[in-house]
Amino acid sequence: MQVVPGYGHGVLRKTDPRYTCQREFALKHLPDDPLFQLVSKLYEVVPPILTQLGKVICLL
């Protein structure tokens, strides 16, 4: 297992700028990479779920 920089407690309040930079790079250069696709999907799906569960005060 590897750590994905930009994910952690801080992402519950504001997206880590390191992740934003990595995401922009991956969108441009690695859009079909399976690992990037998984992380990207989690980035889209998980925050609204956490918000519904009351685990997040504010997002992004």
TrEMBL record:
Name under which the protein is recorded: Citrate synthase
Species in which this protein is naturally found: Nelumbo nucifera
Family: Belongs to the citrate synthase family.
UniProt xrefs under Gene3D superfamilies: Cytochrome P450-Terp, domain 2
GO MF terms held by the record: acyltransferase activity, acyl groups converted into alkyl on transfer
Superkingdom of origin organism: Eukaryota
InterPro entries noted in UniProt: Citrate_synth-like_sm_a-sub, Citrate_synthase, Citrate_synthase_AS, Citrate_synthase_sf
Keywords per UniProt: Transferase
